[in-house]
Amino acid sequence: MEISLNNVGRRFNKEWIFKNINYIFKQGEKYAILGPNGSGKSTLLSVLLGNLTPSEGEITYTDPDEIRVENIYQSISFAAPYLDLVEEFTLQETIDFHFQFKAYADGLNASSVLSLLGLEKSQDKALKHFSSGMKQRTKLALACCANTSVLILDEPTSNLDTQGIDWYLALIEKFATNKMIIVGSNQAHEYDFCKHQLSITDYK
Ligand SMILES: Nc1ncnc2c1ncn2[C@@H]1O[C@H](COP(=O)(O)OP(=O)(O)OP(=O)(O)O)[C@@H](O)[C@H]1O
């Protein structure tokens, strides 16, 4: 997959959040999108995900032929603290539901995702009874264990304790090798592994 941004800008009402982004995201490479609170990291991730249209410019997805933006969700996995899970589902139901829409990464199945999460004892518990850290782990595991070529993570370690942060980094190491990863962050421990860095403030 290659994601190509040609002069991309986004505004809300009259306020430009970013402008004139010309950039190519390449398969297998790791990118951090950096900037202070409110600078536009999540907005750019939403544009890359196809959830928001650019206000100007063009974004194209190629793998190897061009993919229409309405189909791009099939190639991208996404996790963010503001992403809602179905609170009434148990963990087991959440995993089964998610993988009806996306294939498991090679060699994985529902029980290996559960053991990777380390939450086997909570498999029949409804997500509404999960702590915020348990929910964040669940979102990261669902995203990382899917067989998609692109992984987009917004503030991946929010709500995670030190042990959770180590768990996240191990998860990335295990599943990241061939994926394009884009991390929106302002905490170095979340994106230290990213070779490329884009600062939103360069596009104001
Ligand atoms: N739907 C919207 N309508 C109007 N303004 C919006 C909307 N979504 C975001 N914004 C504004 O766009 C700007 C960038 O917000 P965004 O959430 O992308 O920043 P961020 O860098 O991800 O912030 P944080 O680090 O706090 O998560 C902010 O000023 C925000 O108020």
Automatic annotation (TrEMBL):
InterPro entries hit by this protein: AAA+_ATPase (IPR003593), ABC_transporter-like_ATP-bd (IPR003439), ABC_Transporter_VariousFunc (IPR051782), P-loop_NTPase (IPR027417)
Record's keyword annotation contains Translocase: no
Domain ABC transporter: 3-204
Matches recorded under PROSITE patterns: ABC_TRANSPORTER_2 (PS50893)
Gene Ontology MF terms: ATP binding; ATP hydrolysis activity
Pfam family, one: ABC_tran
Domain of life: Bacteria
SMART domains: AAA
Presence of keyword Ion transport: no
Keywords: ATP-binding, Nucleotide-binding, Transport
Protein name from the UniProt record: ATP-binding cassette domain-containing protein
